[in-house]
Amino acid sequence: MKLEEIVPWGRNLAEYRQMFNLSDGDLCQRILGCGDGPASFNAQMTQLGHQVTSIDPLYAFSPEEIRQRFEDTYPTIIYQLQKQSSRYVWQNFRDPEDLGRVRRETMELFLEDYPQGKLAGRYIARSLPQTRFGNREFDLCLCSHLLFLYSDLLSLDMHIASIDELLRVGLQVRIFPLVTLDGEISPYVEPIRHRFQQLGYQVKISTVAYEFQRGGNQMLTIHP
Ligand SMILES: C[S@@+](CC[C@H](N)C(=O)[O-])C[C@H]1O[C@@H](n2cnc3c(N)ncnc32)[C@H](O)[C@@H]1O
Questions:
Q1: Sign of CA dihedral 106, 166, 220, 45
Q2: How many angstroms is it from 196 CA to the middle of ligand 1?
């Protein structure tokens, strides 16, 4: 993967809690974060004594390269948010600049933790659909702003292979949001719900407290 293809825009622990409806009990599970990028979830969870492993191809890059990529993409993202502001819910963030400030703070928290987290094996440069973990190494696999969101770039087969893999290495998979970048429900949601139900899994769509993309307030949960 080329760094130019990645938008290093990450969310924090409070946002992860809302997106995935994480209870206090959930936080104490062995968690795999897929495509965590420059989110501060792992850093903040580790500070609280919890156990999170994050995989992302971004972790092949140095802190300086990740920060530079953030700064390079920043003006374009802010401009797009301003241009399409009616597509978003401006409740937790006043305006695009406010959101940008929070995203920068989040990335700085991540970068502070990144060198030691890499040494500890908490940040691993790896890409779905292969994780190379053993069976049931995790209780909870979380995937935020990757599957479904990038349905125009990632095929249905890639989605299925990724979820198969996460159900192998974890007991439960949660994916958020179910909308694409246009804010429309991903065309893969129904085929995936159908496939995993047919295979005998419990598949549930829940409304969660987090909504930034208008209509993007649903999470998919799959478990045996
Ligand atoms: C928009 S960011 C979301 C970051 C974080 N999950 C959050 O919500 O704050 C998407 C992330 O997915 C990562 N990514 C892209 N392809 C991936 C793959 N095949 N497997 C794992 N991560 C991937 C990117 O590098 C990027 O960091």
A1: negative
A2: 23
Residue nearest to atom 22 of ligand 1 (CA): 35
The answer to whether position 100 is within a domain reads yes
Q: Is 205 helix (H, G, I), strand (E, B) or coil?
A: strand
Q: How far is the CA of 6 from the centre of ligand 1 (A)?
A: 8
In a domain, 4, yes or no: no
| Residue with CA at minimum distance from ligand 1 atom 13 | 35
For residue 7, the model assigns a pLDDT of: 78
Which pLDDT does position 8 carry in this prediction? 84
CATH label of the domain that carries residue 144 = 3.40.50.150
pTM of the model: 0.97
CB count in 10 Å sphere of residue 85: 11
Task: Give the residue from 6, 72, 88, 82 showing the smallest Cα distance to 39.
Answer: 6
Range of the domain at 144: 13-223
Q: Mean pLDDT in runs of 10 for the chain (224 residues)?
A: 69 98 98 98 98 96 95 92 94 95 97 98 98 98 96 96 98 98 96 98 98 97 98
